[in-house]
Amino acid sequence: MTRHVLEQVTDFGDFTRGKELKDFLKQFNSKNSTRSCLANIRISPDGRHIHIIQRAPRTGLMTHDRYQRAHLAQWQEHQDLVLTRNVSIVDLLYFNQHHSEDEALLLGIIFENGKAEIWKFAERKRGWSLLQTVELCNSPRAKIVSVCISQNFIIWCEERPPSESLSVSSVDRRHFSYCICKRTFDVDERGISLGGVKTALHNNPHYSVTSTGDIVYLLPIIEQDSCTTVNKVFLSWSPQTDVYKVHSASNGTLLIRNTAANKQLDFKRLVTDCIGFLSTIIPPDIYGFSPVGHGDILLLLSSGWVCMMQRDGSLRQIYKLPDNCLTTCGTQNSLNVYDEIVVLTVGRMMYLIDIKCGMELERIPLKTEGLLFVNCLETHSPQMFTDAGLYTVIQKENEAKSQPSIANLQNINLSAVLVEAVFEEACKYYQQRSLSTTQLTAEKLKKGGMFQAPITLADIIRNYLGNSKIKPTVKDSSGHEKLINCLDTELKSLIALEDIKASVVKASEKDLQSYCETLVQQELCRLLSSDIDRENLQYLNSMFQLFPTQTWQAVKAVFQLRCNGDGSLSSKAPAELWKIVLSPVQATPNYCNNQQKNTPANGALPVFELLCHSIFKFQPSWLPKFLELAQQQSSSSSTSSWNFGKETSESLPLYKRALAVIPCKIACQDLEVELLLCSQRPNAVMQALRMLIGQGQWDRVIQVAERYCRQSPLLNKEIFSTLLIEVSQHRDLDPYLDLLWALCPEDMTVTGILNIVLKNLPSTTQSLDPFQGHSEGSQLTIGLLKPLLSKVLQRETRSSQRYADILQSPTFPPPTPQRQVVELPEVNTELDIDLKEKLASGFPVSTV
Hints:
This protein is α+β, with helices and mostly antiparallel strands. 35% of the residues lie in helices and 23% in strands. The chain has 27 helices and 32 strands. Helix 14 packs across helix 16 (607-618).
């Protein structure tokens, strides 16, 4: 005997920000009514996107996505889908409800002020992206209260100011200030294109619009002060033929009205013919509804009956709930149809009802209230959303009714053994081929998308292709079915790849480029999501050589490279991807000592060099910024154990690896300078500074000096000494002397400065006055050095302890010592030799 039970499909762990979603639902339900939360939840037709509409006082949209490939979700940047702020969201529209897995999902966010934002979700590209923003309403004062899609029409109910509607009495002005409007739409690659606005019904009450097939139902919103007569009827309308029907929840169809095409109709005129009949009946209120399709709609009435309003106007009663059920539990309910079963939740009880005969199949108690939804990929089984996760209803053998036989036990054991045996075989197969010492497990193969067991794969694919269009009504618990469920994502990817290959063969010249980009991006994602051995590295090199343009586009998409407004480069790639890129294991590039230094001896460039080469070819200005990103990743705390930055015999610094891809250093000196400076290493910075000095870019020289002198005292001293040598030899730095003197290190002395200057003075035969200011010659003068020497001498004087007592003397200075002529001793230093020569030539030297 079988019974229906709830089985958890996911606890939101495979959704983006799943823990945040779970915490939000629990926190919300603890403070508010569950129904108020469930009423604001929307689930996409494929069950992969959960949207929570946030009402006042805080308006917005929470979005949570389930990716079919887990590694793609890690690369995506979370983005709030709502750009229109401080405006309430009315509802969401899915424009391509039956899209394929490779097709992008189009979502429309409809706002109360008539604006609509069209968003697209593409898993293999960059997740959600805004396509366009459109205006639905003509009037800026209109207020949308409900909206739906019916075939190629957008239908909505909007509230208009009384002055814009037809004349109505002052009593009914507030209750009948709504209109029903429609617009055609077409979906294309840029989003949607809208037709003109047409008002179909004037002066109607507040209606909730919902579509089923080609029919739109207008259901009244029950309000405290609403007109009781209006609540007795609801309408159905065909937007294509403009046929209206007036229905009652107790008597079915009351009136049918055909109108001319594009002719506006007034609600009061429509119901005038049946107003007398309405005064004699008291129909039940509508507590819940659900579209069935083909023009039928399922209704939950306040009387406890579950009824179906068919497109021909007949009202069929299906099931009667227990007495006082809705009164006890309030109006917290959810209902839907799955194949031949009506599923209804009232409070914390789920009812399963046969739609043909109305027989109750089973009641399932619920731990918490939930929302039923239809997953277009699995329409055969009921799906339910709760604050604990997503659940599905399955059939299960009632073990309490009958004891399992030995044969059943053997079958169960064999099924479990079959599943585990296949994965264990795959573990052994990959362990033999792997160079890593990490032990593979079956769980890693299931979660990592690595399963490719060769012995069983062919048979699995054959059965999968043969049964892909057959949806079993009951979940099979056999080992083969479990194996198929585990490999469903991989098999779909394989089939999609084969479809693309077949499309490439038949593709035109125009479509071939698009297919090629898709294939290259898929291959790059696949290779970078696993360990790269020598064989895969060789394959990756060939892909970059054969498809340079496509691989460059794939690199930008996979790493999500974005050039910000301030000129910096950003990437949202996860740390695991950078680990593959920067790993020195697959590098070991024993670079040849020939002219082509960027070519390794084994003929295959490492991944980092491949990326740098592609960036240099298509966007050279990004190369220094990419180097900075790579260095940030290699030095971050999460990757500190990678040891990428150490210069060992097995790996080179990243800036040297980036420099190796530049073919001609002479033609790319500016780029080489930028790479050297980005490295932040003292030797590289000095090398870049000397290159700038050689090019005579003195503005850039001073900028680099000011920037890097602050990094360390040693680098400051080396930069200052290098520039002081240049000052000693020529006059090109004279306009920058004030800036240069400000960079003088604290430990620099007058003697040290004079030593550097005298050692590097150019040889000259001209006799110049050393005390003059600027001269037209190229020789350094004392006048140029005077500010620097004065600054250093004052600093030495302040720091000298010998002058402490003198500076603290109260009134009288100490007596001046008697001057004595002292014979100069024989000197061996170059400074003393120069001073002796100057004295011999008549140059006065003070002893003070």
